[in-house]
Each structure stands twice: as C-alpha cells, then as structure tokens.
Fold this sequence. Notes:
binds fe (ii) ion; five-stranded mixed sheet; alpha/beta; single chain; six-stranded mixed sheet; Purple Acid Phosphatase, chain A, domain 2
Amino acid sequence: MKILFLGDVVGISGRSMILNNLLSKIKDKKIDFVVVNGENAADTGMGLTESICKDFFNCGVDVITTGNHVWAQKETVSHIEKENRLLRPRNLFAASPGKGFGIFTAKNEMKVGVLNLMGNVFMKKCEDVFESADKFLQKYKLKEHYDFLIVDFHAEVTSEKMAIGHFFDGKATLVVGTHTHIPTNDERVLKNGTAYQTDAGMCGDYDSVIGMNKENSINRFLKKKSIKHFPAIGDATLCGVIVDCDIETGLAKKIEKFIYGGELKNSH
Ligand code: FE2
C-alpha cells in the first residue's frame, strides 16, 4: 500500500504540473491513495474553486486538504458542504462549514482516514490543536476505524510540527506538515512507526518567494509600492512524500521524498 502526499499547490503553475503528470506518476509508482493540499491552488494563490477540485479528482487525487486560506474563494463556503473529499482544518471554530476529517476508500479498497489540522503558533486563531488532536485520538483508532491515517498539519513553526508528529507516533501512518512551502530534509519513520516530514514543500514555481512573484514579494518587504500579490508562473516542482505502508499494522515501513520537475533537485 503506497500513499502519495503532495504539498500546497500554488496557482496555475502548480495546477498544470499536477494535471499533466499526476496520472502517470500514480501508475509508475503504483500509488493507491493520493492527498493534495490545495489551499493555494486558485489563480490568485489563495484558496481553491469547485472546478479546481474537479480537475484534481479527475487526475487521481483522492482527498484535498487545506489550511488558513480555505475560505479565500467565497464559493468554497458552500461547495465544501457538498464535497466530502474536500477538508478544512478540523480545529477551526465549531461553526465552520465542512469537515476536517473523513474516511475514504483507496484504489485497493482499503480504508484511509485523512485528518486536517492547523497550528496555533503564528497562524489564524483556531481551537487548540493539541486538545483537538487528543479528542480525535480518544474517538478514532488505527485498525479499528480505518486501515491507515494521514494527518496534514498545516502550521508555521517546526517545533509545533515535530511535537504533533510525536503526539501521533504509533497512531497514524503519516504526519506531514504543510504551509511553509519549503520541503524539509527530515523525512523518517518515528520510533513507534509513524512516517513524518516537517514540511512537504509546495507544488509550484520555486523561482519565486514561496510560490509568489519574486520581484513583487521583495518590493513588499522593502515597503515599496507593490501591485496585488500574484503567483509565479514558471515551471513548477511537485513536492511531497511517498509512504510505503504496512497493511497488517497500518503504520509506515518507509517514507521517501518525492520531488519532480522545475527548479529543485529531483528525488525519488
Ligand atoms: Fe497556508
């Protein structure tokens, strides 16, 4: 059983790389289940639309996760109620539309739980992520409610991400960070069998500032007059991880970085 998780898709560049390559990568690498963080996939780099979700599902994505920009495109507020394969962070305030967790069927018929959480440090206000994770783990158990559990932890700081990784160790198949758009070099299987990487990186143009046009981004830091922020449109790199899972335990046997195309050194 192999899971592919891809980090934050940014704008047209990230989307077209996914649409042109994902199906063939799924076939080549014998992937059974695909999760993509889509919260920056819209043309503006903020949020996503119903038609973007449709495109992703048509090219092999099983579940789309999000984060702090989930509501940037207004239509998502109603679309998320109709589309259970689109998740928002579970620890958003209770009245928020949509869900932060679901159990889905993989291409090989196995049951995969996907949980989307958001950090508290330097992020938009949301419920305490550790309390939310603790409540979740009291309710749901690996091999009882699902065969595998994937946690997308959308957060800014590495310490909070590592702590969540260890918190789920032995109780999830994969904990992977998103949001910083830079792939970290720490992929490993933790002591109790959970695959972990602090950040998956983005699927976007790396000749940029985290996916956004670099000149405009520098001008904003220089406090110079800048036009509305927009994504870079060069060739994208797909960034994520591939996890080889143990069918008996639901835990990870191996995690490898997946980096394909564009500016970064390719791996896997
Ligand atoms: Fe984000």
